[in-house]
Amino acid sequence: ISVQDLVEASYNRIKEVDGQVNAFLTLNEEEAIAKAKELDEASEKSQRLFGMPSGIKDNIMTKGLRTTCASQFLDNFNEPLYNATVVEKLNKENTVTIGKLNMDEFAMGSSNENSSYTPTRNPWNTDYVPGGSSGGSAAAVAAGEVLFSLGSDTGGSIRQPAAFCGVVGLKPTYGLVSRFGLVAFASSLDQIGPITRNVEDNARVLEVIAGHDEMDSTSAAVDIPSYTESLTGDVNGLKIAVPKEYLAEGVAPEVKEAVQNALKVYESLGATWEEVSLPHSKYAVATYYLLSSSEASANLARFDGVRYGVRSENADNMIDMFKNSRSEGFGDEVKRRIMLGTFALSSGYYEAYYKKAQKVRTLIKNDFDKIFEDYDVVIGPTTPTPAFKVGENIDDPLTMYANDILTIPVNLAGVPGISLPCGFSEKGLPIGLQIIGKYFDESTVYRAAHAYE
Ligand code: GLN
């Protein structure tokens, strides 16, 4: 099969299904076909992801290709001037960018319903949400529109949609993958990661995008091992910790059962598991929304109608221009977070909220450190329930936030986590198994995931 055949197959599939799924915001068809033709003629075809059609979440900068963060504010941001480091790395391996993927506006959401364009639907059943915020990235892979995609995960945004769409999504250790060119939401939590159909593909993509980058001061100077070499199928002796909080009340019985069945598979492969506790995880959602909204309020200050995107026409002085550009450009959820974050950072409240939340974050990190003294991985569900219906939670932000209860602690601690399929609900929707590892130990996470898969 030629690269051109592969890339054309991708666009044909998009034409067939994307009218219902809405995974793509922008297509790159002309450029992609031209690149495919070039690659078919190339004499050197040894790159690791040569010719692979990929989709990129629309908060990752792609030079000359529209990047909107699914926000009306950036609706006219048609010509980004540079590529994110991850995109540069994919280009070096000669992957083909098929287009940019739908998401919750500025990555704030768990259902894609906060996209300011038509929200993405779950390809398994279009009455249901695909998850978020990387819902387009997960749906495009699940619907067979691309072979892999990149998402970003601040509080679960790769793992939760991967779980809802029945695909594999990894949030790397904080600092493993460069954030240069990722539009910042909460800089101390954001990580870019791969979404794929299976664990091996995921490991291959991570091998390419990981690594130190001098353009990101939080990027770690670590050697990148061959993750694919760790896919031995051998988990004999692996020590698994199962936090009791991850199978507690609020987790749907069918989700619990799927995870318990997965643990039986691990037992049959020679691994052992024990119940442990993450005692501070009950504070994780509150901590996360305080910290992430505080960081977001600062990061989103750059959207002022001067430097990027759409400027309000309804203003005759500078202050009104700032105000009206922001009022008209941002959606409700983004405004809610900016207001919460600005409040939490304001003098007089900083000690009571932001500083306290930072202390709780340390306690959550310590919970994980303690478990990892005795165990190799932590296993539980990715989400308390399978995908919910479009419209079901949209008017109830607190229920929506509670959906991230099992993914958020992982971002607060900074450790890596993967979601992979572990069965289906009664309604035929996928259920996700979450495997969490030690800092920079993606190899063990992948080995454990691959052995189960
Ligand atoms: N759903 C969470 C939120 O709304 C996580 C988002 C993310 O990881 N980008 O903040």
Automatic annotation (TrEMBL):
Organism expressing this protein natively: Virgibacillus indicus
Subunit annotation: Heterotrimer of A, B and C subunits.
Molecular function, one GO term: transferase activity
Protein name: Glutamyl-tRNA(Gln) amidotransferase subunit A
PROSITE patterns reported for this sequence: AMIDASES
Known role: Allows the formation of correctly charged Gln-tRNA(Gln) through the transamidation of misacylated Glu-tRNA(Gln) in organisms which lack glutaminyl-tRNA synthetase. The reaction takes place in the presence of glutamine and ATP through an activated gamma-phospho-Glu-tRNA(Gln).
EC code: 6.3.5.7
Residues forming the catalytic site: K57, S133, S157
Pfam family of the protein (one): Amidase
Any single Gene Ontology cellular-component annotation: glutamyl-tRNA(Gln) amidotransferase complex
Broad EC category: ligase
Family listed: Belongs to the amidase family. GatA subfamily.
Catalytic activity line of the entry: L-glutamyl-tRNA(Gln) + L-glutamine + ATP + H2O = L-glutaminyl-tRNA(Gln) + L-glutamate + ADP + phosphate + H(+)
Domain Amidase: residue ranges: 5-445
